[in-house]
Amino acid sequence: MRIGVLTSGGDCPGLNAVIRSVVHRAVVDHGDEVIGFLDGWKGLLEADYRKLDLDAVGGILARGGTILGSSRVQPAHLRDGVERARGHVADLGLDAIIPIGGEGTLKAANLLSQAGLPIVGVPKTIDNDIASTDVTFGFDTAVGVATEALDRLKTTAESHQRVMVVEVMGRHTGWIALHSGMAAGAHAIVVPERPFDIEQLTEIVGERFSAGKRFAIVVVAEGAKPRPGSMDLEEGGVDMYGHERFAGIGNRLAVELEHRLGKEARPVILGHVQRGGTPTAYDRVLATRFGWHAVEAAHRGEFGMLTALRGTDIVMVPLAEATSTLKTVPADRYDEAQTVL
Amino acid sequence: MRIGVLTSGGDCPGLNAVIRSVVHRAVVDHGDEVIGFLDGWKGLLEADYRKLDLDAVGGILARGGTILGSSRVQPAHLRDGVERARGHVADLGLDAIIPIGGEGTLKAANLLSQAGLPIVGVPKTIDNDIASTDVTFGFDTAVGVATEALDRLKTTAESHQRVMVVEVMGRHTGWIALHSGMAAGAHAIVVPERPFDIEQLTEIVGERFSAGKRFAIVVVAEGAKPRPGSMDLEEGGVDMYGHERFAGIGNRLAVELEHRLGKEARPVILGHVQRGGTPTAYDRVLATRFGWHAVEAAHRGEFGMLTALRGTDIVMVPLAEATSTLKTVPADRYDEAQTVL
Amino acid sequence: MRIGVLTSGGDCPGLNAVIRSVVHRAVVDHGDEVIGFLDGWKGLLEADYRKLDLDAVGGILARGGTILGSSRVQPAHLRDGVERARGHVADLGLDAIIPIGGEGTLKAANLLSQAGLPIVGVPKTIDNDIASTDVTFGFDTAVGVATEALDRLKTTAESHQRVMVVEVMGRHTGWIALHSGMAAGAHAIVVPERPFDIEQLTEIVGERFSAGKRFAIVVVAEGAKPRPGSMDLEEGGVDMYGHERFAGIGNRLAVELEHRLGKEARPVILGHVQRGGTPTAYDRVLATRFGWHAVEAAHRGEFGMLTALRGTDIVMVPLAEATSTLKTVPADRYDEAQTVL
Amino acid sequence: MRIGVLTSGGDCPGLNAVIRSVVHRAVVDHGDEVIGFLDGWKGLLEADYRKLDLDAVGGILARGGTILGSSRVQPAHLRDGVERARGHVADLGLDAIIPIGGEGTLKAANLLSQAGLPIVGVPKTIDNDIASTDVTFGFDTAVGVATEALDRLKTTAESHQRVMVVEVMGRHTGWIALHSGMAAGAHAIVVPERPFDIEQLTEIVGERFSAGKRFAIVVVAEGAKPRPGSMDLEEGGVDMYGHERFAGIGNRLAVELEHRLGKEARPVILGHVQRGGTPTAYDRVLATRFGWHAVEAAHRGEFGMLTALRGTDIVMVPLAEATSTLKTVPADRYDEAQTVL
Predict the structure, then answer these.
(1) Which of A276, A319, A273, A277 is nearest to A294 (CA)?
(2) Locate the Phosphofructokinase domain: which residues (chains A, B, C, D) (predicted)?
(3) Quick one: pLDDT at residue C160?
């Protein structure tokens, strides 16, 4: 069998572990050939690829990033390229294509699958918002990085009697905020699923100080938004020392809480650190299993499917299903995190 | 409601996170009172306890060990103490007891439950071998510590052209060996579930060297055993430099592989480092959820049950079921890890 | 002997290690009594303190922050308080005061020393800019945190063909930028000691891309400034996707480099994470030694002095000298870091 | 200029950082050519080498081990090979050889230097026992790994009321034991420089338990020895549960302390984990500076010398001096660590 693999979309710890696992399973156990398309779908559309043998994937298991490069591609652009992709697949004699990517990638994968190409998808997002799988690789690493930062910030917040507002990734869902906030014992967690009321948030944080505590940690997902009418997001602000603080929900919340509480508040924007670097053991195992099972699915001829974790099993799920809804933080999970004072 | 909590058996990262979560949920949300029995069942039998309020659990979320202390108790001793325990529970006005522990603890918990005491168990084992839950807290931390060590050992093995034999925890099951071995890309993984054939193992490792590789990593669970007749475990051995190397499967395997391969082999016994210290974010979240749901179960009057993770949900499982079988590494999971060369 | 200790100024990993060491050495070896003033100089001026015995410093060696709290005090305010401080020192029967702090704290300490109070200072700054000591504790931890972030960012920058501009601490000096940049192999390091020319910086980064590399890492100290006329710092900017990016040298540089290079550039502002949390082993040893030697100096009656590291020795240096000049990055050290392509 | 570089002796975090730095400085700044001899002196004796250009050292800064491989060579063997080495140096047109290694390597380097070969040495030992330099790279990483393990073991020791005996590296000197023991707050530190009296050690640890503490941590260097007559080291022992525990000072001490104190004692042998894997930022900076200055010395024609750290400066020291004495832990440094109860 001849297999093409590609990585598309934003960076995510564990991508290399999937690539390595595909190559190991396919080449060693099945005697397959594997090629890797460069820079995501672009590589498929332009037949830009390199051979992936055992040496090519040596030492990459624990390395962040992707040895194949990645890029974002416009869906329209890909739609126009279906015939070109089909031609390359035929020319290269490919029996299976394994795209590893997030929601956009999987939608593109579904498009190509419906056009008849032999696709087995592997879901990837540090945001953990793909509905068809219990967990995606990369998420555990992102939560780990955020939790370590929160652990560090707690002691400095306490020494200086401050509110720390820590902005973590999560444009549409609050999974990273929820898990890192629970793991670090944050005193308030603000997620996109629940538009926040700034007065209520101020009250929650304020109660801590009233109870004699010297600091508070607020974790906020980058995509969190105030309840309409609760707070004006458009403008930036000036903190209690007259310094300008600018756009971004973390910065905005820090300014707002400082004004309302009369306590120093400092924003920390974790940013790209969450999506780079060595994956945790958890993510390496999950990524390795996804790669292994994607190859198996290809050999069973199960195309148009996606690898997914259900409990402790890896199962195959239709691509079409996988991208229909976003997995958001449900009310009961959010409630579990509300106890902390 | 008045709740007693205790930790019993071996140390496990996340114990304090459960204790804290029980106190937070019970005290803050339900207005309960919580006491902690000291040093496991012993504390219950001797009515040795202290009050656990919010201050008592301040700052313990990320701390290893258990603020309540732990001990191992003989089942017979506990059986004789049932009436004493019942008396203390009545005297203290306890409505629920939440023991946090491994297989032995849960069996004891079941005994007391059948004797009519109001028990909600929380499973705990770094070995991950409790059948009724997908995962136990502490396991992820143990795997993380082992993986970090394996990552380090790889470079030193490569520089010196050695075989490294790394012994990890797992007396009856090979979960830590399997996951850390997969995460670090070990070249052979030896688990208790599959008695090994020393000749076959030598062959697998030897093939790597034949293929031009300069080193190999073997991960072995402490409880792994040779296939009967394959290797004599009783005696120690002498390595190729004439140094005595002694009992313990890691040491034995290193001696044996060195003799058979004619390559330097070095044992590393990770030991207690795997069960101490700060829990990973994963374990803190799981432990926190277990504590939260144990309190909820108590308030619903669901006694004789155990918290368990199923997929992404926390469910309640009968104590009796929970301890009937050991969760061993199944064949298909083991096969997934066999691809690595 | 009766000793008072206090921590003043910004947070710094290792403060608790100094406090613990002072208590251990003084109480255990000399039979002294130790009290800790709360929230820095404020505690001394208001006679707000608590007793520090062995139990009070149990378990704090590896903990970030300061159990005594800290605050910044206006020099004028302290000057007015000299008599009050003297009164408290007399009332409390103190034979020595050990303030742990940065430049401002040490200047205040010198003032009180010249007024006749028995002061032994301990230098503290994550910025490493105190001239009289080879290294200050906290610096190694800050460099470690920054380096770990840079390691992570490298893989994500490479996967996405980006310039990452990472802003680290260092208002007046570039030590953290220099060391973390060298440790992580940054491609350009921008420090306050050398106002940068934006065109030259663009050229250096651009050459990397011309040479076929896919990414670049720029480390910039928060206090770095453009050469007059080289770049307008007042205004914010708009990146190549039309998003506003605002003040702060990291953000500014990212916007500027993106415009000039035509490559995506992303800023990461590490912020307070660098000064919180567990100190490295290096910082704990240095902090412990400083505390030990401060007590010894007090017992020898060597007041008006500061502990300092010279090579591998701890020596005592006059407070007056210690604060007269800032230790900046010298030309030859900067040159050592310029080789990286 | 044409430079040959080689790594010899035991593995040490930072070796790759030196190699990379030599190549960067030599190739980029001086336009030199650099070759790397494989597997230490063996590569020089057998003219086994590869070209080291910028690509060859890409991505190795943070990687443990050595890309050149290493081996130990018998001094006699090298002595016989001087002419062969001289021949290869002439044939390859080498202007300088930079061997990176420990005491044995530097003695060999001195031998070759005295035979007229153009040598600039770089000292390397995780043990930190080379007298001519304040610190060697690799030491900080080893101390960091040991400290992290000790941090983890503390909580598990406390939960189980145990003595933990942790054996760290240090065959002839106790630097790793001293620094990791101070950093982690060990309750006793046993080093080769001070043969221990088992009764005195038992007393020190016992006092902790008498004072109501629940656990103790003992750090012991692998080369530590009992005072003659104090304890019989030859035989192994049987612990209080009848399990055999065998040779190695860590195991022996655990058995002995358990018997004498009547408390559970557990040995942990950290082993090779201390010398593998990613170097700390500190070690990367030091290693990078050593490489840079070695190239500079070569260009200045300063042969027969060794790079060394003195305070914050890198200086050149005669090879002959460097290996004449071992840097042992002096009495006053040891005393600083004796305060802990």
Answers:
(1) A319
(2) 2-297
(3) 84
Inter-residue contact D94 to D118 (CB < 8 Å): yes
Q: What order of strands is seen across the sheet that includes strand B2-7?
A: B49-51, B33-37, B2-7, B96-101, B120-123, B305-310, B313-318
Q: Tell me if A205 sits within 8 A of B307, measured CB to CB.
A: no
- Six-digit token pair at A158? 């306490």
pLDDT tens-digit profile of A182-206? 999 999 999 999 999 999 999 999 9
- Give me the phi and psi of D224, to 5 degrees please: -65, 145
* Exposed / middle / buried, residue B190 (Cβ in 10 Å: 0-12, 13-18, 19+): buried
Q: Which of D66, D155, D162, D234 to mutate to test the interface with B (most CBs of B within 10 A)?
A: D155
Exposed, middle or buried by CB within 10 Å (0-12, 13-18, 19+), for B153? buried
Q: Are strands A120-123 and C244-245 parallel, antiparallel or unpaired?
A: unpaired
**For residues A152 and A169, is the Cβ–Cβ distance under 8 A?**
no
Q: What is this structure's pTM?
A: 0.95
- Concatenating the DSSP letter of every residue in A34-94 gives EEEETTTHHHHHTT-EEE--TGGGTT-TT--S-TT------HHHHHHTHHHHHHHHHHTT-
Instruction: Name the token pair of A65.
Output: 């990033």
Looking up tokens 């009967």 gives B228
C-beta atoms of D271 and B266 within 8 A: yes
DSSP H helical ranges for chain B: 15-23, 30, 41-45, 75-80, 82-92, 103-114, 139-160, 175-184, 198-210, 249-261, 281-300, 319-322, 331-336
CB–CB of B5/B37 below 8 Å? yes
DSSP state of D27: I
Q: Which amino acid is at C21?
A: S
- Strand C163-168 relative to strand C265-269: parallel, antiparallel, unpaired? parallel
φ, ψ dihedrals at B176, nearest 5°:
-65, -40
Look at residues A92, A268, A84, A293 and name the one whose alpha carbon lies nearest to residue A180. Answer: A268
Number of cross-chain residue pairs from A and C with Cβ atoms under 8 Å apart: 118
Classify residue D29 by burial, with Cβ atoms within 10 Å: 0-12, 13-18, 19+.
middle
**Which secondary structure element, helix H or strand E, spans residue B306, and what is its range?**
strand B305-310
Cα separation, D135 vs D190, whole angstroms: 21
Across the range D187-214, mean pLDDT stands at 94
Q: How far apart are CA D14 and CA D275, in angstroms?
A: 10
Q: Return the pLDDT at D233.
A: 55
Q: How many residues does chain D have?
A: 341
What are D's interface residues with B at a Cβ cutoff of 8 A? 7, 10-11, 15, 63-66, 69-71, 145, 148-149, 151-161, 164, 214, 236, 244, 246-247, 266-269, 271-273, 275-278
Q: Are the Cβ atoms of A183 and B281 closer than 8 angstroms?
A: yes
Dihedrals phi, psi of B17, to nearest 5 degrees: -65, -35
Q: What Cα–Cα distance (Å) separates residue D66 from each residue in B156, B185, D18, D295?
A: 8, 19, 10, 19
Task: Output the six-digit token pair for C83.
Answer: 């008599």
Q: How far apart are CA B193 and CA A283, in angstroms?
A: 24
Looking up tokens 């549960």 gives: D241
Running DSSP on this structure, what letter comes out for residue C277? S
pLDDT score for B338: 80
A264-278 average pLDDT score? 94
Residue A102 assigned ligand-binding role: yes
Write phi, then psi, for B83 (nearest 5 degrees). Answer: -70, -35
The residue in chain D having the minimum alpha-carbon distance to the alpha carbon of residue C283 is D183
A239-253, B210-224, D308-322: which range is least confident on average? A239-253
Residue A229 burial (CB < 10 Å; 0-12/13-18/19+)? exposed
Q: Which amino acid is at D38?
A: L
Q: What's the whole-number mean pLDDT along residues D4-33?
A: 96
